[in-house]
């Protein structure tokens, strides 16, 4: 049981409210990201004790949604908060990191050397295009990619105002997704101007922006990992190896019970940075109402948080 000190907003929150996404019964409490202080633990809990400051993944229902003062979550979804990080800063780390690890381990099928019990062998592309790198998930994925593939050429699409920030997280070269010459620009940034070996699409861009598939090297593995956005899988051109992934796929990944422990360790070792800047909406119902309205309209390059 956690006394929530800060909760972060995700697109899933407004989709739950507006469309019933992941809602099993009404009324319900939204919120899947948050941080706080442990107030009580079950008899079999071993990783945390009462008084620990934590960040966690929550579930959107009346007992476990993070948009409330007290919420219950599972030990596997918890990581201890570093003393140097505020509750607001860590509130939005869990879901994007967890999903990024799933995206690499299941979506691209890479190794995950930092994950206890995780895969030690896997796909090793020499170049990867991260689509939507300035989102929280995108910025988390860039960091995990750099840990997994330290020698790979990591390319990314985002709005130009975010290019410097994602470069600081590990991107080698960024591109404006709206550039009319994007395909040529991406290919020129790869060895021999052949194109990329893998794409990880974190915003479902491939559904409408079909030219993204032209950035693949014609003689390469053409691996495409697409995050589930609530819609059917994106159809891909012939020859492209596509995998859809979502956080809920974790049972399929070796070592998934230790994903949050790996985040805890990376934070403690200063090997993981704040993916995107936070914007604190303040305390109480007004902050949460404003946050939901903002996330409905779309927020670029910021993680919205509020305090119950």
TrEMBL record:
CDD domains named among the record's database cross-references: enoyl_reductase_like
Keywords of the record: Oxidoreductase
Keyword Lyase: no
UniProt superkingdom: Eukaryota
GO molecular function, one term: oxidoreductase activity, acting on NAD(P)H
InterPro entries (UniProt xref): ADH-like_N, ER, GroES-like_sf, NAD(P)-bd_dom_sf, Trans-enoyl_RdTase-like
Domain Enoyl reductase (ER): 3-306
Homology family: Belongs to the zinc-containing alcohol dehydrogenase family.
Quaternary structure and partners: Monomer.
Protein name: GroES-like protein
Organism: Polychaeton citri CBS 116435
Taxonomic lineage: Eukaryota, Fungi, Dikarya, Ascomycota, Pezizomycotina
